[in-house]
Amino acid sequence: MSHHRLTPSIHEQQNQLAGALKALRTTLELPGPFPEDVLRDAQAAVAEHKLPDLDFTHVEFVTIDPASSTDLDQALFIERNGEGYNVLYAIADVPSFVAPGGALDAETRRRGQTFYTPDGRIPLHPEVISEAAGSLLAGQLCAAFVWEFELDGAAEVTSVLVRRAQVRSRAKLSYKGVQAELDAGTATPMLQLLKEVGIKRVELERLRGGASLNMPEQEIQQLRDGGYRIVAAPPLPVEDWNAQISLMTGMAAAGLMLRGKVGILRTMPAPDEASLRHFHRQTHALGKPWDGETPYGEYLRTLDPTDPRQLAIVHSAGMLFRGAGYTPFDGTVPQAAVQSAIGAAYAHSTAPLRRLIDRFVLVICEALSNGTEVPSWAREALPSLPAIMATSDQLAARLERLALDTVEAALLVNHVGQEFDAVVISGSKPAKSASVSGTSNGNGGKSNGNGNGPSGIVQIAEPAVTARCPGELEPGTQVRVRVVSSDIATREIRLELVG
Question: Which of 16, 99, 268, 468 is the most exposed place for a label (fewest CB within 10 A)?
């Protein structure tokens, strides 16, 4: 798919877009620069940092991330072990840089996570940690939590141990580069094993009833000329295989904490009967019926998001993935311990540079794995973490939604009056209010500005924009729409149905 971009000739629109994106930081009250006491804390932590005694620098770890990433949480090594595998997964030892009760600790609890904006990112930790001393950069001697897995021939975990150790990554690899090497048959044996193990772990996910949405992700990319584009594409296979290692680690972390009766899980309830019935009806209406007997996760794997009607089903399936949260426990195991989309108990444990809760999970798991006392600072924080993360997650979701709305409005601002082919991804429904125009993604609670009649969500392929459109719209059908107006400052797009 080709992608529309803002060209250097439209400086006025670029300036409006830059201003609108900058204004989001104020509108949403996003964290600003780190306070001086926090920076002093971070700099002192780096200056005084001591590496663990255990030396794993002989292990040929590599990192696999988007090419531009510098906050590298994870490094991987896989080798064959008889009919099975040894998997070593190094996770950045962020807790070793954060003194409990200090200024840096307090600031990270206030932020909760790294916030990503089209014009930059707002890190959870100062860059001296997140992009330097604490990041698993190639060639750098680092502290890490090393998860040591033994897998059988089916890639089932047969043993797990987590220890703090010194590590040194050998190379910083990108998803695109690794995928290209795998496709060309030139990948290293270790990367070929990642594919082998990843495929087997995907099959294990299927067998345990796990489910995932193959929804094309929309990423806002800033261009060298100051413009932006929206790239919408399914993830590469290697991203899924790499994610399976992270999922495996999260499941192992949950298992350690459940056996130790202390920790915090990422939980999500199974979809309720009403949601399943509605989804069942949608699949029949869109021509690829789900029988209701096959696990819905298995059914979702059969969908092709490049087919317009099946893409509409993928969007409709979002109703099945609701209610995720965090469940802390200490002394008794929670009854609702499963993350239903994964099909197992699970914990966030592999992104401590970017997400607060992983820092606590890692130290708890390391203690439980080695039979030592769980640090009191981690144990005492457990009850407060769900609220911290819920607030942070809500802010991140709102930021992502409004940033996408803003860029989509910018992509259409020079196309007012023009017509485009589009696919209906959700069907007609009455608008809530006639007072204001609709936002670009249709999720802002605003109407289409054309009365209280029916409207739906359509997806324009080029430029890549999703917007509300008035009219009787059937999910999965192709339609023709005209851009009536597009306003960068208000993030409002108005479309009309022309055929």
Answer: 99
